[in-house]
Amino acid sequence: DVKVTQSSRYLVKRTGEKVFLECVQDMDHENMFWYRQDPGLGLRLIYFSYDVKMKEKGDIPEGYSVSREKKERFSLILESASTNQTSMYLCASSLVRTGSHEQYFGPGTRLTVT
Amino acid sequence: QKEVEQDPGPLSVPEGAIVSLNCTYSNSAFQYFMWYRQYSRKGPELLMYTYSSGNKEDGRFTAQVDKSSKYISLFIRDSQPSDSATYLCAMSEGTGRRALTFGSGTRLQVQP
Fold first, then answer.
1. B8 part of contact set with chain A, CB < 8 Å
2. What is the pLDDT of residue B9?
């Protein structure tokens, strides 16, 4: 079974703090993604990476950065957390392969910024 | 206007009912269409996928794609309380190094 794990299920941080969200997958997937999920807005793509040290901006990259130093690990960084970044953050991974379209998701991290 | 529109619900049905969930989209380049199911406090899981137009059936679930109308549907027959979840449609122009575009999700509650 593919497993995508996220470092925390729940996180509470203060405004201005630097926040790291970690994601690890164990199936040697090339693609990794970070989404945030908000009521009424669905999943919105923040960043994705299709290879080590490669990254591409998604729909809402402002206020976020990412790091992928190893194939299995993809980190999301909030440089200076703000209250409007309170959300559920979901990590996903998938294969780079023609006909492959399934993304495997982690359980999510609910981040609250106060 | 969002690229993918989905009624957020909630949709409440009695056990055994036929459920119809729908999404509309504006990007005519979408070719791959998926339905993900998300239980409370869990990440989404792929339920069904369809390439281009047509129908696909898997047990109690049927996915339909009408590219001419830019409209996709998921039908659930003989709905069960265990089907209670949020259903998200997702679409992609291709595979490989591609991200998905998700709808906002429809929350379904099947009453026993």
1. yes
2. 83
Q: Are A106 and B43 in contact (CB under 8 A)?
A: yes
**HEC assignment per residue over B41-103:** CCCCEEEEEEECCEEEEECCEEEEEECCCCEEEEEECCCCHHHCEEEEEEEECCCCCCCCEEC
| C-alpha distance from A112 to closest chain B C-alpha (Å) | 15
Q: Cα–Cα distance between B95 and A98 in angstroms, integer?
A: 6
Q: How far apart are CA B80 and CA B52, in angstroms?
A: 29
- Token readout for A40 is 């009424």
Q: Minimal Cα distance from A108: which residue of B? A: B43
The pLDDT tens digits of the residues spanning A72-97 come to 999 999 999 999 999 999 999 988 76
CA–CA gap between residue A103 and residue A29 (Å, rounded): 10
Cα–Cα distances (Å) from A94 to A2, A28, B69, B99, in that order, read 10, 9, 29, 10
Task: Work out how many CB contacts closer than 8 A connect A with B.
Answer: 58
Whether residue B75 lies within 8 A of chain A, CB to CB, comes out as: no
Nearest to B8 among A40, A99, A100 (CB): A40
Model pLDDT for residues B80-106, shown as the tens digit of each residue:
999 999 999 999 887 655 678 999 999
When pLDDT is cut at 50, 70 and 90, the band that residue A45 belongs to is very high
Query: B88 has which bridge partners?
Result: B36
